[in-house]
Amino acid sequence: MLLRFLLTCCACVYAATAGKHDAYRSYSVHTIQVRNADDLQLIQDLQFDLDLDIWQYGMAGQRDAEVMVSPEKAREFLSALDENGLTHSILIADVAKSLEDHEDDIAAYRSSRKNRMIFSDYPRYAEVDSYMERMASTYPNLVTLVNAGPSFEGRAIKYLKISTTNFTDASKPIYFMDAMMHAREWVTTPVALYSIHRLLENRRPEDQDLLDDIDWIILPIVNPDGYEFSQTDNRLWRKTRSVNLNVSTECIGVDANRNFDIEFNTTGVFTNPCSNLFPGPYAFSEVETQYVRDILLEYLPRIQLYNDIHSHGNYVLFCYANKTLPPNAAHIHHIGAAMGAIMDSMKLPQARFYLVGNSGLVLYPTSGSADDYAQVVGVPFSYTMELPGYGYEFMVPPSYMDHMVKETWEGIAVSARLARIHYRRRFN
Length: 428
Ligand SMILES: *[C@@H]1O[C@H](CO)[C@@H](O)[C@H](O)[C@H]1NC(C)=O
Ligand SMILES: *[C@@H]1O[C@H](CO)[C@@H](O)[C@H](O)[C@H]1NC(C)=O
Ligand SMILES: *[C@@H]1O[C@H](CO)[C@@H](O)[C@H](O)[C@H]1NC(C)=O
Ligand SMILES: *[C@@H]1O[C@H](CO)[C@@H](O)[C@H](O)[C@H]1NC(C)=O
What we know:
2 domains; Alpha-Beta Plaits; 4-stranded antiparallel β-sheet; signal; disordered N terminus; globular; Aminopeptidase; alpha/beta
């Protein structure tokens, strides 16, 4: 408690005496053309020693890597790239400036709009909470609001259950989506909120089947502490905000998407608690990941599809992160490809095409991820979506959100319908 008080206090003093984004002054982000697996390995090998923050991993011939580096380590980093013959260029010269521009974008967008829709902006935790409360009271016959429990810092982590039969009809599959497991991935919560909006407030006749034939569990903010901290203090915060003095007196938080009990602490993680990829002292050390686990286990075997929404990069990823495939990989790929295809058909010119595939192969091998955990415990279709960054990556201007939420909803809708067909085949 004392530590938490001290940390909060330091944060206040800091905010009052310095520019909010000064911690990132002269940090730069570099685009790197990766030619092969050795290039990818080199970047990974430099990651810890040079304190790199990998914004995008890259894929030979498909995607460039994007890496943030501090001003102190930039020279060493760029020399290492040059020595190995890698082509690179500057994407962001000063991350602090870019974060300031991002805040200006948000302010300008807000003042230009009379009717602010919660899903076309970046709502704070309290706004999301009151939206969910409002949906529950406006649609009492369709919606049950559940409080899973408090986050580490005590914020209620809530989700909506949406159903025409109050989850009592076992012939219906359940679609479980969650968002904002990683704090800086701000575009993810609006996508979850827009899904709620389309199922309840703005349901269209052609989508009635999605409500009638499927039960929905929607958890818009898995990591509210991290999200609020990214709003108030550090825009690029990724982890939870848990303090564990046995682990570290210096650094706090755990990468929630490495904290699940599946091949825990094996690949794609760092043992140092200060790392952005610290998996935690043990699997499910974080209450936030425990709640996701508990939902998965409570509603098995009816959860037919789990969609863990992240950003950025335009990927639909499936299991397992160790590059092996589950037995129903052909069906998993079929649904993932259908999602990617419909979202691509609506894509903005600034967006990449969706890459659909095994997470270990098209992204990078990891362990302890939510999608792998869901697949292993028995969810037949488990995905991680990486939404578009449009070249702004984590700092997408809100003017893109109207489009992004609609495009992504189409992907969600198609995956829900296909997953339902497979569910009927399995059970009827
Ligand atoms: C569904 O049933 C539960 C348990 O009986 C109840 O608490 C909840 O209010 C119901 N929700 C709706 C939407 O009817
Ligand atoms: C820290 O370690 C002590 C002694 O092993 C243990 O009793 C305590 O539960 C640990 N605290 C946490 C937060 O893990
Ligand atoms: C994670 O693995 C590393 C390397 O094997 C080991 O040193 C470390 O103690 C492990 N951490 C935990 C929390 O198990
Ligand atoms: C990859 O992970 C899955 C799920 O944990 C496991 O069943 C499989 O044996 C693993 N494959 C290898 C090669 O480790």
